[in-house]
Design a protein that fits this description.
Blueprint lengths: L1 H34 L2 H29 L2 H14 L5 H10 L3 H13 L6 H9 L6 H13 L6 H9 L3 H14 L2 H13 L5 H18 L5 H8 L6 H14 L5 H8 L4 H11 L5 H10 L5 H13 L6 H10 L3 H11 L5 H12 L5 H14 L1 H15 L6 H11 L8 H8 L4 H14 L5 H9 L5 H11 L11 H5 L14
């Protein structure tokens, strides 16, 4: 028994000595680390961060230069989503070298969306040699030419239509409507009149597409043609309606009696088209027709009246739009009216919009629409109310849906005044709210929130959020989308939210 006690005492003393030894070593290491100047610690962290950024940059570049097709396609999607343009020169080079049609198609779409004409020569070459390229690549090239309005491609587009190559017909018609000149509009009217397909449905689609293109061109050279089609009661209603709308866009007041007569038609498609066409005219008869459109029994006519009044900045239409926002039986019309009101900055309308946003009984969709519309078009009217609502809702679990949806709306607004809201979302424990906060940061590049986003990036426990934060910091972390440099941001943004308006 005594031997056992001796052994226990021995092991106890040994354990205590071991603990003291480990503790002493730990204290020494901590002292050594603490003795290092803070600047050296910070420099080491900065160097490590730079190494990670360089590594991830090189990884993406290596994918472009050496990756297989699927990897490159996936990266193109990612770069597009992140609005990352650091690799555009490499992607342009890949386009010239690749033999994979899907990559060429993806790059046409990628640069078309960015309005970058770096593939202009390639697109024209594809059209000139369309028989040597896959159909999808030809279609992508036509879409690229349309989006960038490359008029040099017009002869190729017209040739394809003359040759009646149906696989490209609709795209070519649409492209001519976007980039064409008066002589091209005349060409389309001749194509319309010569259309004689045996397939009635196919013929109708072709003629409708031609008319949509002519509406976009709306040149005076085709006025007589449009009148003829608009007055042709045997013609399809959609085709007639598009001719009516195009006729109004030309701006010739001689069209008012025709548009007035068509507004009395029992077909709501034609009444809608008449309102679309007559909106630009300022005489008393045209204005009276517009007023009647706000009371039309068919909701699409009311929608068009709201849209036309907004486009024409018709201040005298505000009372009618406000009534639609308050009372219309169709939610679609109410939402459209709310969006239109946000453009007018009318005192009565603004008061109703703010009061309705703050009233929970208003309904989620309407409250969100009010916030979205005013934040984009009249920021200072609603910002403080939105900030108060967002910060309150994010702290109440029962309002998770509202706070998440409101956060998504705020993330679409380009205005650095939303930084306090973004900070609250980034600090939230829920990954969903953190992600919404990153959406806000992506949109506005708040200089003061870079350290907070860096913390999310450095914490590997955040998983996908960590990787996304790293990507956002790499995307020119010292430069905003609007071109504001880091030196400007770090110098201090003392403007109020009102001073930061971008929607006006």
């Amino acid at each position: 028994m005594k031997n056992i006690k001796k052994e226990l005492n021995f092991f106890l003393k040994l354990s205590v000595l071991s603990f003291l030894l480990v503790l002493n070593l730990t204290l020494q290491l901590a002292a050594q680390e603490a003795s290092q100047p803070p600047s050296e610690n910070k420099a080491a962290e900065t160097d490590e961060k730079k190494k990670k950024e360089v590594s991830e940059f090189e990884e993406k570049r290596d994918t472009i230069l050496y990756g297989i097709g699927d990897d490159i396609l996936e990266l193109i999607k990612r770069l597009k989503a992140d609005e990352d343009d650091r690799f555009d020169a490499d992607l342009q080079k890949i386009f010239a070298e690749t033999k994979i049609p899907a990559i060429r198609d993806a790059l046409f779409a990628y640069f078309a969306e960015k309005k970058n004409d770096c593939l202009k020569a390639d697109a024209l070459m594809v059209l000139e040699n369309k028989d040597d390229n896959p159909q999808e690549t030809v279609r992508s090239a036509i879409s690229y030419i349309r989006e960038l309005a490359i008029y040099e491609g017009i002869d190729s587009l017209r040739k394809i239509l003359k040759d009646e190559e149906s696989e490209y017909r609709d795209l070519c018609i649409s492209a001519i409507g976007k980039i064409g000149k008066p002589e091209d509009a005349v060409f389309l009217t001749e194509l319309f009149d010569s259309e004689a397909s045996d397939d009635e449905k196919k013929s109708l689609i072709i003629k409708q597409n031609i008319m949509f293109a002519l509406e976009e061109l709306h040149t005076p050279e085709i006025r007589d043609f449009l009148i003829r089609v608009a007055e042709d009661t045997d013609e399809n209603a959609i085709i007639r309606g598009t001719a009516v709308s195009a006729l109004g866009k030309i701006g010739d007041e001689r069209a008012i009696p025709i548009l007035s007569e068509i507004f009395e038609d029992k077909d709501p498609i034609l009444r809608t088209a008449a309102i679309k066409g007559i909106a630009g005219f300022k005489d008393a008869k045209a204005k009276n027709i517009m007023i009647q459109a706000f009371k039309d029994s068919y909701y699409k006519v009311r929608l068009q009246a709201i849209q036309s009044a907004k486009e024409e900045k018709a201040e005298d239409a505000v009372p009618f739009i406000l009534y639609r926002a308050k009372k219309d039986p169709e939610n679609t019309v109410r939402l459209a009216a709310i969006e239109a009101l946000s453009h007018f900055n009318n005192a009565e309308a603004n008061e109703w919009l703010v009061d309705s946003f703050n009233e929970e009984k208003t309904g989620l969709s309407l409250r969100l629409k009010i916030a979205e519309s005013l934040l984009k078009n009249n920021f200072d009217i609603i910002y403080e109310d939105v900030k108060t609502a967002a910060l309150k809702a994010i702290s109440e679990k029962r309002k998770n849906k509202f706070s998440a949806e409101l956060g998504k709306v705020i993330s679409t607004v380009e205005n650095k005044g939303t930084a306090p809201i973004a900070e609250a979302y980034l600090n939230h424990k829920d990954p969903i709210f953190k992600s919404i906060g990153l959406d806000m940061f992506k949109r506005n590049r708040y200089a003061e929130l870079i350290p907070l986003v860096s913390l999310i990036a450095e914490d590997e426990k955040n998983g996908a959020l960590s990787r996304r934060a790293k990507d956002l910091l790499q995307l020119s972390p010292t430069e905003s989308k609007t071109g504001e440099t880091a030196s400007q941001s770090q110098a201090g943004n003392t403007n109020s939210p009102q001073d930061n308006q971008t929607g006006k």
